[in-house]
Specification:
- The chain is built from two helices and 16 strands.
- It has a 16-stranded mixed beta sheet that branches.
- A hairpin with a 6-residue loop joins strand 4 and strand 5.
- The longest helix is centred in the N-terminal third of the chain and has 11 residues.
- It has one domain: Glycoside hydrolase family 11/12, catalytic domain (Jelly Rolls), CATH 2.60.120.180.
- By secondary structure, it is mainly beta.
- Keywords: Carbohydrate metabolism, Glycosidase, Hydrolase, Polysaccharide degradation, Signal.
- InterPro entries: ConA-like_dom_sf, GH11/12, GH12.
- One of its GO terms (biological process) is polysaccharide catabolic process.
């Protein structure tokens, strides 16, 4: 008898675990399971899982930021239903002491990552940073959101739907800029030459461009979060691996 595709959460987890061929420390498979250490943190951020008809996701830590070396981790996931809805954003972040964006000298970062397969995936690989006028604003949102998409797979698009500016050159690459949102305004830079599986640059260059070209109020906004991960919509089982990610606020 031909085996049927796994449909339960338990059977999906078996498939996902088999995809993770390297050893690591499991952070967890539950919503908001987390790890923190050495100024870094990881979160199994399944914030949109209620929009899925089925699915699951697990997060594994491989190295944890000792000696300023950044973090390495992976996440395995499969989601069905709600094609246009984000199910999760598993990410690594750094601990941020809120600081006015205008007083930040640099936001250096480097990232290397891979997907085992992108066939049938609706997903992106992105930086996500929030800023707010209130330095004590919740870190899960902000007045402004800056996203930097190193890759997008499938039919998804950032908030705004279509670019407002094409081929902005920042950090040695060209980006299309999307803009939209309500009480939280989101700017999304999408790599024209993506996927960028290796990236090094200064994220402050994106804020500076927005300040000069879109009227972003850097002097009245505090940086509250600095994150990197993958937004999962639908598809999988898939394995997203971060071989290295590091970042700092100067």
């Amino acid at each position: 008898m031909k085996p049927s595709a796994p449909t339960s959460t338990a059977s999906l987890l078996v498939v996902l675990s088999a995809l993770a061929a390297v050893q690591g420390v499991e952070v967890g498979c539950k919503q908001y399971d987390s790890w923190s250490g050495n100024g870094y943190h990881l979160i199994n951020n399944l914030w949109g899982m209620a929009q899925a008809s089925s699915g699951s996701q697990c997060l594994v830590l491989h190295s944890g930021g000792g000696g300023g070396g950044g973090v390495a981790w992976d996440t395995t996931w499969a989601w069905r239903g709600g094609d246009s809805d984000v199910k999760s954003y598993d990410y690594s972040g750094i601990d941020v002491s809120p600081k006015p964006v205008s007083q930040i000298r640099s936001l250096p970062t480097s990232a290397s990552w891979s997907y085992n397969s992108t066939a049938g995936l609706n997903a992106d690989v992105s930086y996500d940073l929030f800023t707010a006028a209130d330095r004590n604003h919740a870190t899960s949102s902000g007045d402004y959101e800056l996203m930097i998409w190193l890759a997008k797979f499938g039919s998804i698009s950032p908030i705004g739907g279509s670019p407002i500016v094409h081929k902005v050159n920042i950090a040695g690459h060209n980006w299309d800029l999307y803009s939209g949102g309500g009480s939280q305004h989101t700017y999304s830079f999408v790599a024209c030459d993506g996927p960028l599986t290796s990236f090094s640059g200064d994220v402050m260059d994106f804020f500076t461009w927005l300040q000069h070209n879109q009227g972003y109020p850097a002097s009245s906004q505090y940086l509250t979060t600095y994150q990197f991960g993958t937004e999962a919509f639908t598809g999988g089982p898939a394995l997203f691996s971060v071989g290295h990610w590091s970042a700092s606020v100067n």
